Amino acid sequence: MTNTIADIEKADVILVTGSNTTENHPVLSSFMKRAVTQKGATLILIDPRRIKLADFAEYWLRQNLGSDVAWINGMMNVIVSEDLHDKAFIENRTEGFEELKKTVEKYTPEYTEKITGIPSQQLIEAARLYANAEAGSICYCMGITQHISGTDNVKSLANLAMLCGHMGKDGGGVNPLRGQNNVQGACDLGGLPNVYSGYQPVSDLAVAKRMEDAWGVSDLPTQPGLTVTKMVPKAYDGEMKALYIMGENPLVSDPDLNHAEKSFRNLDFLVVQDIFMTETAKLADVVLPAKCFAEKDGTFTNTERRVQRVRKAVDAPGEARDDWKITCEIGKRMGFDMTYGDSSQIMAEIAAVTPSYAGINYERIDYEGIHWPCPNAEHPGTPVLHREQFTRGNGLFHAIEYIEPAEQIDDDYPMYLTTGRVLYHYHTGTMTMKSEGLNERSPDCFIEISKEDAETYALVEGAMAKVTSRRGDIQAKVRISDKAVDGTIFIPFHYAEAAANRLTNAALDPVSGIAEVKVCAVKLSIAA
What is the CATH number of the domain that holds 169? Predict the structure, then answer.
């Protein structure tokens, strides 16, 4: 996030898209609801489902799945044509505006409506509202990123924020809501195939030399590695022989799951490091038992870039160990001595090799976390990014054209499917489905469908239906809901016994490598 969670309550207008915030981020959603009900903020929701947050929104715009670049360009068309853009901000803080302006010219409200399904007048009113705000906050989640155009979607939202000068100020910004705990921290500290910690490129020879000096090694790779979504096909083809998985359950969460399962079975050697015997761990040659968050010391970096202490509260069961101790022991046995006295020494090394974390240590975050970047021990941290300038200097507008989703409906597969989460379960249910109370609340997978579509396919509430895509099929209970919109069904992906990802498409965003799990074509029938 460019801004903080608390900062959401300082916004005049909050634009939420691709985020079922009340179910995926229930605590954070309370800031949004409080901003609307108590602070006078106006909420614009752009989502293909009528989620709970729509009850708090001045405008709920229902876009066709995968049409986000088009509606964002459409809003920018209105803002530029009505002279609502922030000329001073554009002139002083950005570059590439003329090319952007030329690209969005054709995205008139009427043209945009044909692509997105959003009524032109609603788009105009929402654009005016966001542009005229003193401070406008954009919040998004995986409904924006999990498309073949996910990178384009994110860049387009940044375009919109810069166009209106809603960057580098309280109550503004572009704020991605991270999908899992410490995703931000994992990315910050090099859990990506193309960067070291602090997003330092592996291809930068000067960076590689600094890392070699710090670690006492030579010849570190200077070419990016593979994303997860590119590893799996290589396992299927036999190019990748071994895989080591930590704290992830891809045999429920990966797209095109039937293909993914064949890929994992084709490995010569699979190691899984986790706290429970997951669906993936059951397939492993070796399972390494790890400690959970409450059993270890360390740090998490949350969605607002705040680095926070985590302290051991209970003893771990059996032979479970700290993740870092397992990693260090494996490193030693592979010939590289990785020795730390405790987790604080690891934090000290992080600060030494990571410019954005350089001023953070356990003593400074003993009671309250610090937002990176924090370049030295005297620096207070940076709750709001880009106040004076962007990381690259001027913010760069990207002129982006809309592209269709990888898969379209047709006579054989006439319905769209989108996936997501429910309030009571988390990710693949590794932990939440061990809770009796949560299982009582949400015991089974379901197919959320509109009343009209249910009648079309002769489906009744609570009955079992079969959903089939070009990749597989599952059976689940029918749930007729006013959240659903005609032509689109929703299935949560938590449930291994009816895994929605047996249906989803593994087509990838060419830049990020993220799969398009938010839109694919399916057909419905009564379960036999």
Answer: 3.40.228.10
C-alpha to C-alpha distance for 464 and 454, rounded to whole angstroms: 12
**Total number of domains in the chain:** 4
CA separation for the pair 144, 137 (Å, rounded): 16
Q: Domain span at residue 300?
A: 178-223+294-376
Give CA–CA dist 64/118, Å, rounded. Answer: 8
Q: How far, in Å, CA of 342 to CA of 114, rounded?
A: 59
Q: Residue 179's pLDDT is what? A: 80
Tokens coding 333:
């046995």
Largest Cα separation within the chain, whole Å, is 67
- Do 279 and 425 share a structural domain? no
Tell me the β-bridge partners of 419. Answer: 491
Kindly state whether residues 187 and 335 are assigned to the same domain. Answer: yes
Banded pLDDT at 246 (limits 50, 70, 90): very high
For residue 474, the cross-strand partners are 467
CB distance 307 to 368 below 8 Å: no
111 assigned to some structural domain: yes
Contact 53, 20 (CB under 8 A): yes
Q: d(Cα 419, Cα 424) in Å, to the nearest integer?
A: 15
Distance (Å, rounded) from C-alpha 323 to C-alpha 291? 7
Q: What is the pLDDT of residues 423-446, one digit of tens each?
A: 888 888 888 888 999 989 999 999
pLDDT tens profile 128-184:
999 999 999 999 999 999 999 999 999 999 999 999 999 999 999 999 998 888 899
Q: Residue 256's CB: how many other CB atoms inside 10 A?
A: 26
CATH of the domain at 492: 2.40.40.20
- Given a cut of 90, whether residue 528 has pLDDT beyond it is no
CA separation for the pair 155, 149 (Å, rounded): 10
Read off the pTM.
0.93
3-state SS, one letter per residue, for 362-378: CCCCCCCCEECCCCCCC
Claim to verify: residue 501 and residue 429 sit in the same structural domain? yes
**Are 217 and 330 within one domain?**
yes
List of E strands, 107-173: 136-140
Taking a C-beta distance cutoff of 8 angstroms, is the pair 382, 355 a contact?
no
Apex 376 CA angle, 373 and 379, nearest 5 = 70
